[in-house]
Design brief:
The complex is a heterodimer of chains A (about 450) and B (about 350). Chain A has about 450 residues and is α/β, with parallel strands linked by helices. Chain A contains 14 helices and 17 strands. Chain B is globular, with a radius of gyration of 22 Å. The chains are: A alpha/beta (about 450), B mainly alpha (about 350). Chains A and B meet through helix 6, strand 15, strand 16, helix 11 and helix 12 of A and helix 1 and helix 17 of B.
């Protein structure tokens, strides 16, 4: 009845920043899971190498393969100690099957020692970080002029970035200093104005470093911005893009900076993923340190989730996540969080007619909220009538897939789905930013 | 083991607003106007409003029963109306059309005028173009323009408000004709006091006389975000600037006639106004310009209705030219550009 009874409540333009529903307690380290699935590919077309075979015993942190080959590769490490039980195609949360390694934990969690950079045989810090499996954009990071650290939280109720800045601020500052020192770039912390909790923390952290500044913005930045910047810079390398310094910009998440610090100074490979778990299926929203490759079912169970009644799970949040067909899929690199909900959905024809899709009434709300300054209602109309090329001219590939247009649309038009459909029809799966934003290879 | 998972694409969140909300917001915002019109013009004006709304709803219902629904079940008529997805008469858009049309009528018109007007507005103004979301012209204004062209005598016969301020003795002075402030200035050279115009104690249409009531409603709409500031403020800004340049009194043009009702309730009609922000500003400025041209140099004393209708016709053109065109290879990321500057 929410849409029928007139209320005097103002409607949000962006999801409400509700401090109470966020995981505000200290983060929790999840115990070592019984089994992990570690993917060696981002998409089934990727090259990969695998160094272990079935029956081998591995230690935590041991290198078990690489994503990509040769100098372009990123190492993959075992995240638990135990026995390799399978090598081959397994479920993956984004693309259905990729080559992966399944390890059954022996519960001992023996670590393999790695040396910090100072005592290692590498001379280039970025080669060292590659070897440690830290997902940076190695192709571009050597000659960037601006490093943007996105500390804004776009997804509803996620605050893993805030938590990690509060809890591991020193590590992040050190990691950032290292990157700034070795690239000569300036660094910008992107913080939303309403994130009052971390503004002061960041100000203290960057007080001593010269080339670092803090920038307050009014709206959160969706994660896919990073992908679009990367796409643009590749276009610039190919000579198609002319102007601006945008192609020498990288956007980094704070948790990666902490991983840079750990790898460089402590010799810890990148095996942990920091994620928020929210939604109606978990008892309390939490921030967890999980091992890479932990199955979603274990994560949700640990967070007090009701597996029986969980109906909707996404990697990523409720606005931009990727829906999951099974809970037997692993947590992959760059997982910001998990949204698990006990959801009721109705088929379109069983909904009340007031909540079905109506005609576009041209209210322009989607245009007002679009962070890419597009005209979503017009794009959707073009795609629905299959004028894909015309939609491309209207900036279809500048769409960030952030979902705000659907969030505000009073006619309940599936704008984001239509835009994604247009991208798929024109350039295939790789054009979807949601896939690209989890890529770690060929950066 | 888990149960079955639902595979559907995010976003799963909505802010809960539906198009019915927008329509009901407009209805709520007109409550002060209705109150003031009953206060100054008596219950007869309320009768006009009710007739207009019910005709609009009935017309829409009949059109949808006869032309949209196949095999309408007349036996269970209420159930069919509630259930059938093609019948959208309950969404409030017809009520808004009828209400706004009634607001543009003089308070003493014969009772068949609102009936004919709102039937015309719904049939020709809305459903001949394809219904909600597809109409080019604001249906309420189309209805008014039709009535003004067909029965100009009834449509320009203004009654003076029941004068509550002058007659303390409480003598009800009914059916005294009085000119609207604009007509009084244009045809007779009489000025009306600003306080009367602000409160609504002048001759004029049911909804337009009281600037105070309209501003109250507009404040609600702006607060709720049902309308944005772009069209009303660019419209009023143009009117004031034009008046200053040509030596007219800007405050008079601001308060007189249907300007405030037009800019806040008619010009901002979502279906018939441009979608882009630049487009909205262009729309408002041009409509303001045309209004003042008609008011100062045209034959009619009032120009808001025609100005908005003329600009409605240009909306597809404005939209086409304000849509951002990008070459296929180029990717725009305005929010990142903003950080780098």
């Amino acid at each position: 009845m929410d849409g029928l009874i007139p209320t005097f409540q103002r409607r949000d333009k962006i999801p409400h920043y509700d401090n109470d529903k966020m995981p505000n307690s200290h983060s929790i380290v999840m115990p070592v899971p019984g089994k992990v699935i570690i993917p060696l590919q981002d998409v089934p077309e990727d090259a990969y190498e695998v160094f272990v075979s079935v029956g081998d015993n591995v230690k935590t942190g041991q290198e078990i393969g690489t994503i990509g080959t040769g100098t372009d590769s990123l190492s993959v490490h075992a995240t638990v100690s135990g026995e390799v039980v399978a090598v081959g195609e397994m479920f993956h949360p984004l693309v259905q099957h990729v080559a992966s390694v399944e390890i059954r934990s022996d519960g001992l969690d023996e670590h393999e020692e790695h040396r910090p950079f100072k005592y290692s045989d590498k001379t280039d810090p970025f080669d060292f970080l590659r070897k440690m499996g830290v997902p940076l954009e190695y192709r571009r990071i050597r000659n960037v002029s601006t490093i943007i650290i996105n500390a804004t939280e776009f997804e509803l109720c996620f605050n893993s970035r805030e938590r990690i800045i509060i809890e591991q601020g020193k590590k992040i500052a050190e990691g950032l200093r290292l990157l700034v020192f070795s690239t000569g770039a300036r660094a910008v912390f992107l913080v939303e104005r309403r994130q009052t909790g971390i503004i002061k923390v960041i100000r203290n952290l960057i007080a001593v470093s010269e080339k670092t500044e803090i920038k307050l913005v009014n709206k959160p930045y969706p994660d896919t911005v990073r992908e679009l910047v990367r796409k643009k810079s590749i276009a610039a390398e190919n000579g198609r893009e002319k102007k601006r310094s945008i192609h020498s910009t990288v956007i980094i998440n704070p948790d990666v900076l902490a991983a840079v610090h750990d790898a460089y100074y402590l010799g810890l490979p990148f095996i942990n993923e920091f994620l928020s778990i929210v939604g109606s299926a978990v008892r309390t929203p939490q921030n967890l340190w999980t091992r890479m490759g932990t199955l979603l079912v274990d994560v949700i169970e640990f967070a007090g989730g009701n597996i029986e009644n969980t109906r909707r799970v996404t990697i990523g949040g409720a606005l931009m996540g990727r829906p999951q067909f099974s809970l037997e899929v692993p947590v992959i690199r760059k997982t910001r969080g998990i949204y698990a909900a006990i959801a009721l959905t109705f088929q379109e024809e069983r909904k009340s007619k007031f909540y079905r899709r109506g005609p576009c009434i041209r209210c322009g709300k989607c245009i007002d909220v679009c962070p890419a300054s597009l005209v979503p209602n017009h794009l959707a109309e073009l795609i629905e009538h299959r004028h894909f090329e015309e939609a491309e001219e209207q900036g279809l590939f500048s769409c960030l897939e952030c979902g705000l247009c659907y969030y505000v649309c009073p006619s309940i038009i599936p704008l984001v789905e239509l835009v994604k459909l247009g991208k798929l029809k024109l350039k295939g799966r790789d054009s979807l930013l949601i896939f690209n934003s989890y890529k770690t290879h060929s950066f | 083991m888990s149960g079955k998972l639902i595979l559907s694409s995010p976003p799963f969140l909505r802010n809960g607003e539906t198009s019915h909300c927008l329509m009901f917001d407009v209805l709520i915002a007109t409550i002060p106007i209705l109150f003031f019109s009953v206060y100054f013009f008596g219950l007869y004006s309320l009768l006009i409003v009710v007739l207009s709304i019910s005709t609009a709803k009935l017309t829409e219902l009949l059109i949808q029963i006869f032309f949209k629904v196949e095999n309408f079940n007349y036996k269970h008529i209420v159930f069919s109306i509630m259930e059938s997805p093609e019948i959208t008469v309950l969404d409030g858009s017809a009520a808004v059309t009828g209400l706004l049309l009634a607001f543009t009528l003089p308070p003493t018109v014969p009772l068949w005028i609102p009936v004919v007007g709102s039937a015309f507005a719904i049939i020709v103004g809305k459903h001949l173009f394809g219904g909600l979301g597809y109409n080019i012209f604001n249906p309420a204004l189309a209805g008014r323009a039709f009535l003004l062209a067909a029965w100009p005598v009834y449509m320009t016969d203004w009654a003076a408000p029941v004068s509550r301020f002058a007659n303390e003795a409480g003598k009800a002075v009914d059916a005294v004709t009085a000119a609207t402030p604009l007509a009084a200035l244009k045809l007779e050279g009489q000025a009306t006091s600003f306080f009367d115009m602000f409160i609504g104690n002048t001759g004029g249409s049911i909804g337009e006389t009281s600037a105070l009531a309209v501003l109250l409603g507009a404040a609600y709409l702006l607060y709720k975000g049902t309308i944005t500031w772009h069209i009303p403020f660019s419209y009023m800004g143009t009117v004031v600037v034009f008046a200053l340049i040509t030596g007219n009194d800007p405050a008079f043009h601001f308060l007189a006639g249907g300007l405030l009702l037009g800019v806040f309730f008619m010009a901002t009609d979502v279906v018939t106004s441009p979608v882009t922000i630049t487009g909205r500003l262009i729309f408002g400025c041009c409509a303001g310009f045309i209004t003042m041209i008609i008011r100062c140099y045209g034959g009619y004393p009032e120009g808001v209705c025609y100005a908005i209708l003329i600009m409605n016709a240009f909306v597809p053109l404005i939209d086409r030219f304000t849509h951002k065109k990008v070459s296929a290879d180029e990717i725009h990321i305005p929010i990142v550009d903003k950080i780098l500057d």
